[in-house]
């Protein structure tokens, strides 16, 4: 199973929703709180080109945000991405 990296903020409801879905999928999640680690915010922006959280990577693939993650789930593609297929 691929490791999922989630750049997030503790109070963000979209981050909570994304992490909840990933937990239900029993995904291995590495969470990076950009409020606790401000230097990581600049890294997230550099890598994704986006300023909003969450920003999610499955392995080396940038998925996007919460809506993008749920769109993958709705299309049936999330499980294969998590499996590394």
UniProtKB/TrEMBL annotation:
One of its GO terms (cellular component) is cytoplasm. InterPro entries: GLR_AS, Glutaredoxin, Glutaredoxin_subgr, GRX_bact, Thioredoxin-like_sf. It comes from the Bacteria. Residues 4-63 form the Glutaredoxin domain. One of its GO terms (biological process) is cellular response to oxidative stress. One of its GO terms (molecular function) is glutathione disulfide oxidoreductase activity. CDD domains: GRX_GRXb_1_3_like. Keywords: Cytoplasm, Disulfide bond, Electron transport, Redox-active center, Transport. The keyword Cytoplasm applies. NCBIfam families: GRX_bact (TIGR02181). Belongs to the glutaredoxin family. Has a glutathione-disulfide oxidoreductase activity in the presence of NADPH and glutathione reductase. Reduces low molecular weight disulfides and proteins. This is Glutaredoxin. It comes from Oceanospirillum sediminis. The lineage of its organism: Bacteria, Pseudomonadati, Pseudomonadota, Gammaproteobacteria, Oceanospirillales. The gene is grxC.
């Amino acid at each position: 199973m691929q490791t999922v990296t989630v750049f997030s903020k503790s109070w963000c409801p979209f981050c909570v929703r994304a992490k909840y879905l990933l937990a239900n999928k029993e995904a291995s999640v590495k969470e990076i709180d950009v409020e606790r680690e401000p230097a990581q915010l600049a890294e997230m922006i550099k890598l994704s080109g986006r300023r909003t959280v969450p920003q999610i990577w499955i392995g080396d693939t940038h998925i996007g945000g919460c809506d993008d993650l749920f769109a993958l789930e709705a299309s049936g593609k999330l499980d294969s991405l998590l499996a590394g297929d």
